[in-house]
Write the structure tokens for this entry.
Amino acid sequence: MKNPTRSAGQRPSVLPIKKASGKERLLDAAEALFSRNGFLEVSAAMIAKEAGVAHGLLFHHFGSMEALYAEVSRTAVRRMDEVQLNAFRGDTVREQIGSFLRAHMRVIKQRQGDAIFRARSFDVVGSGDVAEVWHTSRLKAIERIFEVLGIATPSMKMRVCLRGWIGFYDQLVLGWIADRSLKESEVIEWSLRQLDHLAAEVLCVDLEHPAR
């Protein structure tokens, strides 16, 4: 049945595509450049050129490069959390944690320039907004791992040991992305092997048990 409100030969109306604002283009450009190169290797001029906007617009919207980096980091963490926290898949605890580690590594590979910068530049990002957003993301991941392990009320000793295990895994990932000294399979295998020891000696769980 024809639309009675449209005259013969008249084309259906098409809603105009909303163009990205200058601020949105700056955020997209900064995300791409920070991810690829790391914060210290990116200038305001590079971001403005990539975004196709005037240099001064960056400081108008964000005030400083550090504030822009913090905003980009918050967006990156939200995306990472969404991927990571939905990545615990498999029948056993080991399979679910292995799936989580692989998902995390895929995200890190997409942002390897930034990951290397943050790992090697604690004096720059070791405090403040950027450090806080990544720290919060890490705590969320740890809490999710405890859930998968079936540990409802972990002791302080358990928390310290699991944070240490995450730190060990992070260093393996850094070797994987920074100088390709490790393979992805080695990172996963060695991380799970270390978790086996913690699971037996501190956490008192079996990684081969069905996941909850």
Q: What stands out?
A: Residues 70-203 form one domain. The mean pLDDT is 89. The longest helix spans residues 156-178.
